[in-house]
Write a structure and sequence with these properties.
By secondary structure, this protein is of the alpha+beta class. Helix content is about 25%, strand content about 30%.
Length: about 300
């Protein structure tokens, strides 16, 4: 009967232990590499923020009755956050109660700031504009964000002496280290006492002046076409937009155009920034005469 060598058994056990250790080392390296890949992706995602702008056409009496129901408009506003993953949304022509309801539906971390439109009459008296449906509150514009808003500022700008007064609203979103400015500018003919006056040049200067910082995203419904050749209103554009500040849909340094954001075929909605851009989307919500505009910026 053959005898077994004790030293041979020890060598085989030692070899098996070495093989097992090498296998575990390889597994640990693979796990470490996988974790590193996902960690890098998470960091990259965290360094990008999507900001949206949307004129909801939510004031029914302003020709918006056929653009979608109140419920659908609120649903689409919410989807800009939940599906398009916008962390900050600039909203125009929204009713106060609808903005509040959407903020609550998005969860406790979400915050909003709202400014009502004003109507100035022939005697200089100002009043807010009420939305048509009961309980909707005042008509206005605002900022909706997934975290706290601070340093909220209404930026002074020239407004019609008689007629609807819109405006500019800025706020800081500290969680993303961003300054946000939302503007709704006055289209030509807004001043019923002086229908030939154009306020957009001075309003744009006020907006750009308030949004001069590097970590700023600004825009909204500017009620003007891009300063491309052939646009008779190109003169209202100040220095800064399209040069120091690139627009969401700007394809090159020399470009002064972008996809239409209004059902009329015009581009009226804008988002500008000094930050690097990593994406731009024009989204038809099906619930407004304006399409939503979404810019993705790198914040690192």
């Amino acid at each position: 009967m053959p005898t077994h060598s004790a030293s041979g058994s020890r060598r085989r056990r030692g070899l098996r232990l070495v093989v097992a250790a090498l296998a575990l080392l390889g597994l640990a390296s693979a796990v470490s590499m996988t974790q590193s890949i996902f960690s890098d992706r998470s960091v990259a995602a965290a360094r990008e923020v999507t900001v949206a702008s949307w004129n909801m056409c939510g004031v029914q009496q302003w020709g918006c009755a056929e653009t979608g129901s109140r419920a659908e408009k609120k649903r689409q506003l919410k989807r800009l956050a939940t599906r398009a993953r916008a962390k900050v949304i600039l909203v125009q022509e929204v009713c106060a109660a609808d903005l509040k309801a959407t903020r609550k539906a998005l969860g406790p971390s979400w915050r909003s700031s709202f400014t009502a439109y004003k109507w100035r009459d022939d005697d200089g008296r100002k009043s807010t504009v009420r939305c048509a449906a009961a309980g909707q509150g005042e008509a206005g514009f605002g900022i909706l964000a997934d975290s706290a808003l601070s340093e909220v500022t209404a930026v002074a700008s020239p407004q019609p002496t008689v007629g609807l007064q819109r405006g500019i609203l800025c706020a800081t979103v500290a969680a993303h280290r961003l300054r946000i400015c939302n503007a709704h500018l006055s289209p030509p003919g807004s001043d019923t006492a002086h229908p030939d006056w154009d306020f957009r040049d001075d309003q744009l200067k006020a907006l750009v002046g308030a949004a001069s910082g590097r970590r700023t995203v600004y825009g909204g419904d500017l009620n003007v076409d891009p300063p491309a050749g052939g646009n008779p209103s190109a003169w209202v554009w100040p220095a800064g937009p399209y040069t120091a500040h690139r627009e969401c849909d700007q394809s090159s340094a020399s470009s002064r155009s972008g996809r239409a954001t209004h059902s009329s075929g015009h581009k009226l909605d804008y988002l500008f920034t000094r930050l690097p851009r990593s994406g731009c989307e024009v989204r038809d919500t099906g619930a407004s005469d304006h399409r939503a505009l979404l810019i993705r910026v790198r914040t690192a």
